[in-house]
Amino acid sequence: MRIRTLAILAILFMIAIPMFAQTPGASTGGGFVLPVAFAMAIASGLCGLAQGKAIAASAEGIARNPGAAGAIRILLLLGLAFIESLALFTFVKVG
User: Fold this and answer.
1) What is the pTM of this model?
2) Contact at 8 Å (CB) between 54 and 80?
């Protein structure tokens, strides 16, 4: 299972890498859209999974120790902002 997952990720990264090979002043209009779509889909999907795991872990932590709810909530919001920024950086870089 692990080898299969790594092989799929390697193939997807090989498809997405050419979009990062542009020169700084190159125009991006009229290019091949499939790598851009794959990159944004991967970034959005993985960010969604990460946010779900973060929220589940924080809810479990608050349930175990309600006194630490304030600190957990602050760290959760900070972590969610960092996770969401990864998708936004991909959107800006690719789009």
Assistant:
1) 0.60
2) yes
